[in-house]
């Protein structure tokens, strides 16, 4: 019945720091839509951004900054991703490590975004 993910919602305490991380560090495109809403576009998906305490309706039962654990497949080789993270002064919490992805083995590094969400960045192994 379900084919693929269209978007998900990230709740942040600091909109400007969050936008900087997802656009400058991860290279996603900032999109503005609706009545002042913003999202991060990448590939054929997007992440809609909600500010904590100012969420759009309807919303999750308990939107909480820092509660996400996301895995992204990089468009660059992981060694280039690691270099970009170092250049942006983003600490790698773990990795590179071998993991099991949705469709194949992956090689991953783990970082935290400004709200302390766990962000896994991977390449097909």
Automatic annotation (TrEMBL):
A GO molecular-function descriptor: lyase activity
Keyword Lyase among UniProt keywords: yes
Signal peptide stretch: none
Top-rank taxon, per record: Bacteria
Domain VOC: 4-124
Keywords: Dioxygenase, Lyase, Oxidoreductase
Pfam families, alphabetized: Glyoxalase
Keyword Lyase: yes
Protein name per its UniProtKB record: Catechol 2,3-dioxygenase-like lactoylglutathione lyase family enzyme
Organism name: Pseudoduganella violacea
């Amino acid at each position: 019945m379900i084919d693929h993910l269209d978007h998900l919602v990230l709740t942040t305490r600091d909109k400007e720091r969050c936008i900087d991380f997802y656009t400058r560090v991860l290279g996603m495109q900032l999109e503005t839509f609706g009545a002042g809403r913003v999202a991060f576009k990448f590939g054929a998906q997007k992440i809609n951004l909600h500010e904590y305490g100012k969420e759009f309706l309807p919303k999750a039962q308990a939107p909480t900054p820092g509660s996400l654990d996301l895995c992204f497949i990089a468009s660059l080789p992981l060694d280039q991703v690691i270099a970009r993270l170092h250049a942006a002064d983003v600490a790698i919490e773990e990795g590179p490590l071998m993991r099991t992805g949705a469709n194949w083995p992956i090689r991953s590094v783990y970082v935290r975004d400004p709200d302390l969400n766990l962000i896994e960045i991977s390449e097909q192994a």
